[in-house]
Amino acid sequence: MSHFRAKIVAAARVEASGGTPKGGALRLGWTRTPGQTQAVSHGLCPSELPLATSMPMSSIVQNHHVLAVHDLRACARFFVDYLGFRIVNEPPGWIFVQKDRCMIMMGDCRDALHPTAIGDHNYFGYLVVDDADAYYAEIRARGHEPASAPVDKPWGMREFPLRTPEGHRLMVGEIVST
Asked: CA 158, CA 153: separation in Å to the nearest integer?
């Protein structure tokens, strides 16, 4: 560990315990210069900073996905008709669909890049389900043919891919091992 990183880690631990680091409070500001990001007060690159501290953080209680779409109604129909979501809100320029604890917020963005124009960056989510094979069968029974059947992956998931009518992609998976 570098000398500067050791100082940052030690100061962060002191702050997390409610104390004040020797010489005053630890204050880091970030600056961006061509080709380099650094912590102003110590000249550290982000890779030299600790990945975690003992400071508590708020819990994430739910995950929402936001999609820029060209045809709100067609995209909402896909999630409702084939994936079992329901429309829960329609503020101007938006449609929100929800299934269980998953919400997808679709915004009318007719001038945005089409999802097929952004290659692998058109993946937007991973839906974890309790039974990938059953959900796959339900989707097919509703009239949509996923790109492939569920497959066991080396990362402990049984998963299959989906593609929206506009080309956004998402994965659906079940945890099969931990």
From this structure: 6
